[in-house]
Specification:
With 185 residues, this protein is α+β, with helices and mostly antiparallel strands. The chain has helices spanning 15-21, 38-47, 85-92, 106-122; strands spanning 10-11, 27-33, 52-53, 56-63, 66-73, 78-83, 97-102, 127-130, 137-140, 149-155, 158-165, 170-175, 181-183. The strands form 3 sheets. Strands 8-12-11-10-9-13 form a 6-stranded antiparallel β-sheet. The chain has a 5-stranded antiparallel β-sheet with strand order 1-3-6-2-7, sandwiched between helices.
Length: 185
């Protein structure tokens, strides 16, 4: 039984595709929440029918000798909202938000979120990365993640591809074989 059950991580389901084609008055906002309030903010936005994305990953933990599965936010403290200035005000009424950041380069953030969603969907084990140091940009050549771009990182003799959201200086990494990568231009 999950300790933290999986909840709606994106509303509407095709948000990341819709946002690309939506030239309306909506824009991307990054909601920085109080500690451990990401899901509560997401539930509040869902109740108000405000589009959002909360990337979540499955974590298996041992608790009192038993394995439990939790669905936790990939980026602690962050929820990505696609809405108007009125939606921003409605989100603040949850009383769980510390700060709201407006995203000037919305298309770039949307593409970063699409990449993160692809990484999560792959089912590969992910590691959150924060305060990323720029490295070489690489592209995955093979497999279900072909075309995915990220930053090459070496750690403990292992090759990692880091997909980052530059706006919040965080990302997620996945171990991958060097031969599957090519330099991105």
């Amino acid at each position: 039984m999950p300790v933290l059950a999986g909840e709606t991580s994106v509303f509407p389901e095709d948000l990341l595709e819709l946002a690309a084609a939506d030239p309306s008055a909506r824009s991307w906002w990054v909601l920085y929440t109080k500690a451990r309030q990401e899901k509560a903010v997401a539930r509040h936005l869902l109740a108000k029918e405000i589009p959002f994305y909360l990337p979540q990953v499955k974590r298996t933990l041992c608790y009192r000798g038993r394995r439990v599965v939790s669905h936790v936010p990939l980026f602690a403290g962050y929820v990505f909202m696609f809405g108007s200035a009125d939606d921003r005000l409605a989100s603040l009424k949850s009383n769980r938000i510390v700060r709201v950041l407006h995203v000037e380069e919305g298309e770039r953030l949307r593409q970063d979120l699409v990449n993160i969603r692809r990484l999560i969907a792959s089912g590969a084990p992910l590691t959150p990365e924060s305060r990323l140091v720029p490295g070489k940009r690489v592209r995955v050549r093979y497999g279900s993640l072909a075309g995915l771009e990220g930053t090459l990182l070496k750690r403990h003799g292992q090759t990692l591809v880091v997909v980052s959201i530059d706006f919040i200086q965080q990302g997620a990494s996945m171990a991958i074989d060097d031969s599957w990568l090519e330099l991105a231009e």
